[in-house]
Amino acid sequence: MSVQNWTFLMVGLSFALYIGIAIWSRAGSTKEFYVAGGQISPLTNGLATAADWMSAASFISVAGIISFIGRDGSVYLMGWTGGYVLLALLLAPYLRKFGKYTVPDFVGDRYYSNVARVVAVLCAIFISFTYVAGQMRGVGIVFSRFLDVGINEGVLIGMCIVFFYAVLGGMKGITYTQVAQYCVLIFAFLVPAIYISIMITNQPIPQLGFGSTLADGSGVYLLDKLDGLSQELGFAAYTTGRKTTIDLFFITAALMVGTAGLPHVLVRFYTVPTVSAARTSAGWALLFIALLYTTVPAVSAFARTNLLTVIPGIAYSDVPEWFSTWEDIGLIQFEDKNGDGRIQYTGPASEIENELTIDRDIIVLANPEIAQLPAWVIGLVAAGGLAAALSTAAGLLLVISTAVAHDLLKSTFMPSITEKAELRVARIAAGLAVVVAGYFGINPPGFVAQVVAFAFGLVAASFFPIILLGIFWKRANNIGAIAGMVCGIGFTAGYIVYFKFLHPELNVAAEWLFGISPEGIGTLGMLINFAVAIVLSLLTAPPPAEVQALVEEIRLPDNVAGVRKASA
Amino acid sequence: MSLDPRQVYWRSNLRFLAILLLVWFVVSFGCGILFVDQLDQIRIGGFGLGFWFAQQGSIYVFVLLIWVYVWLMNRADKDYEARCAEQAEAAE
Fold first, then answer.
1. What confidence tens digit (pLDDT) does each residue in A305-329 have?
2. Four-point Cα dihedral A329, A450, A370, A372, nearest 10
3. Which pLDDT tens digit goes with each residue over A163-194?
């Protein structure tokens, strides 16, 4: 069977599975629609959280980025996993204890202010939309490369699938489809990784293969070979870094804190029955995420080694088939500058001019082809990329629809709305959000890709400090919180806009504040948010007694005997 | 007069958080970023130790940290319940 038929089969089967689950798990009430009735088991929620969190970027892009920047890529690995420690220890259990449905619910009640609630809603909607547009784009790329349909048709197909199960099933449908999507995506990521690890190092576990000697019997370690190859071609050694320590520090912190505060991830912890279940569930979630994230750097090193062995110096007429396919879509570009008919792929330190441009996003998708794996593996990878993109898109769409129906209508503007009407609004909002997301997927504003990366900094500078202070400091009040959020997100957004959009020519280390790049500035924004919130809270009246009692209450374990038994 | 169980519970929680977050900071920001070059002098198989922490080790420790916290807090929850029951008895 050809690659394309295998891909149709794999993608078709996985889509049929998602639709089947959606029909089986329809939501009947707002509680089911928003938080799946609050009765999801910690293990199930852990699986769903892992799929919810791991997006097209995790599946497709991260390994590619690390492949090209080597050790500096560690910021993504540590940042996007270390955030779960903060989430599990500092946020999730308390938000679960607080109950209700959303992060703005917590902000609005804890800071007894509808202004704070609306600011939080706007942050949540903005962050979710930028994110979801990126997912839809990812769906489009996979479709156009593997299934021979245009990017636009690909986005439309993806929209229909998400529309179907997000609108029908709400959080309940999304949870169970995400469990299935996790299984598809992790299988699709691990199978080629294991194959390649065995081919290159004779070691079936990629995490170990990555530090083993090569299979050719030379006794040379893979990473030493890769460092040697890179330097020979004029690239920096793979296992050394180029970014400054302070920049690495700030970027990692921004990614960690941003991860911990993402509204679509936090909301998943409202779906488990108890506080203790929320903690356990975070443990499962990170375990399932780590399975992919510890494999990622191995894949990066294998792919880089393969690429540097196969491509440099090869005659253009002899290139492998995958090279031509990706060249056709424009993700590989070759320009024969010295006219010798051979591909020169060199780094900045080489005397020979580089003639090849490779898009980082193709590394994971092309990896099975570069390593000449069987056709079914290639089909599987396509289905895995789609699973990663669709699961995250659905989680984000739910945040948007909940924000509109619950936070804006029910809690702020129309408290008298009936549950039935609220559920209908939530469905309509989810539907509209799918359409808007699809529109941006087909007509991406030029800055989407960049903004997605900065979304973490914006979350770090807005949500995280306010939630943390709300739990751990009773004295934090409404004025401090609102001013903190506004200053934090304002400073961070301003810095990013200044360097990325207004003066991109100034975006070099010498011009940055304290040498911190726009990617890492969210950490400074977070510190500003903390400082403003603390100082203003101390200067103004303390929160009312009932709010302080609420804070006391969310710090305690669930002690209702019935609840505890039900969860055991 | 025994201590307020709520205070005991919250204090032990804060102590766990301080210790676990210190470990979290040391393995990621410490071993993976600040001292990565020094640690790279030590080799384990094909890895420099700093590189290994940055791309593998820190993630394993993160997973462990959450499960240790789960275990500690489940124990603290039981202790809290016992103290509450004790106090209720004493009040009768």
1. 888 888 888 888 888 888 888 888 7
2. -90
3. 877 777 788 888 888 898 899 899 989 999 99
User: How far off is chain A from B46, nearest CA to CA, in Å?
Assistant: 4
Task: Using the structure block, give the residue that is written with the tokens 């090569």.
Answer: A214
Examine the pLDDT at A562 and tell me if it is beyond 50: no
- Long-range Cβ pairs for the range A422-427 (8 Å, 24+): A422/A30, A423/A27, A423/A29, A423/A30, A423/A33, A426/A30, A426/A33, A426/A34, A426/A170, A426/A401, A426/A402, A427/A33, A427/A167, A427/A170, A427/A401
pLDDT (average), residues A253-274: 89
Give how far Cα A72 sits from Cα of A151, A236, A237, A297, A328, Å: 32, 11, 11, 11, 31
Paired tokens of A533:
């919130």
CB A417 within 8 A of CB A404: no
Helices marked H in A25-150: 30-35, 42-53, 56, 62-69, 74-86, 92-98, 103-110, 114-146
Identify the closest residue of chain B to A220 by CA–CA distance.
Answer: B46
* A residues 53-72 lying closer than 8 A (beta carbon) to B: 66, 71
Q: Tell me which amino acid residue A412 is.
A: T
Q: Does pLDDT of A510 surpass 60?
A: yes
Strand, coil or helix: A342: strand
**Helix/strand/coil percentages in chain A, nearest 5:** 75, 0, 25
Distance CA A153, CA A155 (A): 5
To the nearest 10°, report the CA torsion of A85, A90, A96, A100: -120
* Most trustworthy range by pLDDT among A27-31, A114-118, A453-457: A114-118
Residues constituting chain B: 92
Name the most confidently modeled range: A229-233, B39-43, B64-68: B64-68
Whether A311 contacts A343, CB under 8 Å:
yes
**Of the partner residues A73, A84, A223, the one whose CB lies closest to the CB of residue B47:** A223
Tokens of A9: 């089969």
Lowest mean pLDDT among A496-510, A531-545, B20-34: A496-510
Q: Which residue has the higher pLDDT, A548 or A56?
A: A548
Q: Which domains are assigned to chain A? A: 3-303+373-442+449-567 (1.20.1730.10)
Query: A88: helix, coil or strand?
Result: helix
ipTM of predicted assembly, 2 dp: 0.93
Indicate the pairing of strand B47-48 with strand A356-358: unpaired
Contact partners, residue A208, CB within 8 Å, separation at least 6 = none
Inter-CA distances, A277 with A16, A105, A263, A558, A563, Å: 31, 21, 19, 10, 11
Among A155, A175, A150, smallest CA distance to A26 is for: A175
Residue B34 distance to chain A (closest CA, Å)? 7
β-bridge pairing A332-334 and B47-48: unpaired
Q: In the structure encoding, which two tokens stand for residue A325, read together? A: 């396919």
Query: What is the rounded CA–CA span in Å between residue A489 and residue A521?
Result: 11
Residues in chain B whose Cβ is within 8 Å of chain A? 6, 9-10, 13, 17, 20-21, 24, 28-29, 32-34, 36, 40, 44-48, 51-52, 54-56, 58-60, 62-63, 65-67, 69-70, 73-74, 76-77, 80-81, 84
Distances (CA, A) of A26 to A402, A427, A473: 17, 12, 40
**Cβ contact A76:A62 at 8 Å:** yes
User: Nearest CA of chain A to the CA of B59: how many Å?
Assistant: 6
